[in-house]
Design a protein that fits this description.
Number of helices of chain A: 1
Strand content of chain A: 35-45%
Shape of chain B: extended
Structural class of chain A: alpha+beta
Helix content of chain A: 10-25%
CATH architecture of chain B: Sandwich
Oligomer: heterodimer
Distance between the termini of chain B: 83 Å
Helix content of chain B: under 10%
Structural class of chain B: mainly beta
CATH class of chain B: Mainly Beta
CATH topology of chain B: Immunoglobulin-like
Largest interface: A-B, 34 and 31 residues
Radius of gyration of chain B: 21 Å
Number of strands of chain A: 8
Strand order of the largest sheet of chain B: 1-7-5-4
Strand content of chain B: 35-45%
Number of strands of chain B: 9
Largest sheet of chain A: 4 strands, antiparallel
Radius of gyration of chain A: 20 Å
Largest sheet of chain B: 4 strands, mixed
Order of helices and strands of chain B: EEEEEEEEE
Chain lengths: 141, 131
């Protein structure tokens, strides 16, 4: 029964994403969008590497949570704003954000490393032993 | 006429064309003004303190920041939502400023520029006499 609905659920997901993209482009939508922060991901045989640009934040402002194959980035950005000033530009967003990503492998939670340098967060997400690529010897019959 | 001829097009005379390689992004900024100074705050994630040039010439403030590559060269992204490149942005200021008093501070990928106004451009509160 579930599989019959799968294409519909996918469509719903896609529609949600389209709507998010649309609202994020609106100049008045100043608060963090659903998909903040933007992330890049690359991998090698050992681990995946998740990177996000989080300028102005320190490690005290960020939480990285790992469970199963999911990683969650949580945080808060405060921007000082004097009251008796004239604003000419206000482009940077502030507030709280949460974003969860699912990876196609189980993460080994004991070996996760997170580093924040010059406003760039890098999280190393090691693959669990059974998820690493392995060369299989092919036996001749 | 040859197919390879480059179409003649209008040129924006106010923007110099870049010759060096790389991608440049426009950093997000907050700018506010108090009676004595302008404060510029720019998000420059990935920029190290030695890799940024701030200049002020003929009333134009220029931010030019270089970003060192962070990923291994041959590594391809599995998932990519943003591009990594240098940052560049210019602002023109009509208010006279005290160029020697400009201060810049870069911390956690966030730049704070303090641009003091020239003495004669500062706002002064004028006491109004009554009676």
């Amino acid at each position: 029964m579930l599989t019959a609905f799968a294409p519909l659920l996918r469509l719903q997901n896609e529609m949600n994403r389209l709507l998010e993209d649309f609202t994020e482009d609106l100049p008045l939508a100043r608060a963090f969008g659903q998909r903040y922060p933007a992330v890049n991901l690359w991998q090698d045989g050992e681990a995946g590497y998740l990177e996000a640009e989080l300028p102005g934040l320190t490690m005290d402002d960020i939480e990285v949570l790992v469970m199963g194959n999911e990683v969650t980035l949580k945080g808060q950005r405060k921007i000082e704003a004097p009251e008796n000033a004239t604003w000419h530009r206000r482009e940077r967003s502030h507030g709280s954000f949460t974003r969860t990503l699912s990876l196609p492998w189980e993460i080994d939670p004991d070996k996760v490393e997170a580093r924040l340098q010059d406003g760039v967060l890098t999280v190393k997400l090691p693959k669990c032993e059974s998820c690493k690529p392995r060369r299989i010897a092919v036996q001749a019959a | 006429m040859s197919d390879t001829a480059i179409e003649k097009r209008e040129n924006r005379v106010d923007v110099p064309e870049r010759i060096d390689q790389g991608t440049w992004y426009t950093p997000l900024v907050d700018i506010y003004e108090t009676g004595d100074e302008f404060i510029f705050q720019a998000d420059l994630p990935g920029v190290k303190p030695g890799d940024i040039d701030v200049s002020f010439e003929n009333g134009v403030l220029t931010l030019d920041a270089r970003v060192q590559p962070r990923q291994p060269q041959d590594q391809e992204y599995v998932w990519q939502e943003y591009g990594v490149g240098h940052f560049y942005r210019q602002f023109s200021l009509n208010t006279p400023v005290d160029v020697n008093g400009i201060k810049a501070e870069l911390k956690h990928g966030e730049l704070k520029l303090t641009v003091p106004k020239a003495e004669n451009a500062r706002t002064r509160k004028i006491r109004i006499k009554t009676g």
